[in-house]
Amino acid sequence: xxxxxxxxxxxxxxxxxxxxxxxxxxxxxxxxxxxxxxxxxxxxxxxxxxxxxxxxxxxxxxxxxxxxxxxxxxxxxxxxxxxxxxxxxxxxxxxxxxxxxxxxxxxxxxxxxxxxxxxxxxxxxxxxxxxxxxxxxxxxxxxxxxxxxxxxxxxxxxxxxxxxxxxxxxxxxxxxxxxxxxxxxxxxxxxxxxxxxxxxxxxxxxxxxxxxxxxxxxxxxxxxxxxxxxxxxxxxxxxxxxxxxxxxxxx
Length: 251
Prior knowledge:
Elements: E1 4-5, E2 8-9, H1 10-30, H2 34-46, H3 51-69, H4 76-98, H5 102-126, H6 135-148, H7 153-162, H8 168-191, H9 197-210, H10 213-220, H11 226-249
Helix pairs in contact: 1-2, 1-9, 1-10, 2-3, 2-11, 3-8, 3-9, 3-10, 4-6, 4-8, 5-11, 6-7, 7-8
């Protein structure tokens, strides 16, 4: 007889925890990637509907680890500016997400993941420069994406780099913003009834697996080729996005 916890086989927990741990290291190195990879492990386990709420909770652990590891590199002024603008948009995006059906969620996640791969490359090549006024609409866009989709860290990282941050300051500032937005997002899902106690416990258990990733990422940050990492990440995301779209379009 297969042993289960909250109706989910224990080996699923182990598999998702391993993916989460690896994804948290990837995210700690590049500042994004955790939210892009986790849906690939979560959808087969819990279905599409709880994916964004679960990732919202696990992100509290992932980003908490990054904040602790990169604390001295945080740009508090930029973090506060982005957070204040992004909050209402995050609430709106999360509320919209709770209105979608399982098929709608699969299509939304699949399209988002698929579009974020070329978007990351476009933003990198554009060398966009954002002043204080340009940061406002950019933060609003990020907030809407963060509330209703996963993988929005690509956009936030690009915004922070365009505003003048570099290196560890980007990862650190991204982490503190994402942590704060994660709290808002989780509260919104909770109030909307999209997060019951079983899902919260599942997300917390998976989140614990991600916490050490930030410290490991800091230790190997200077030893990994970002080019190789990006290529592998893009490939995994495209495969997962196609799978989600197939699920959403299937009768």
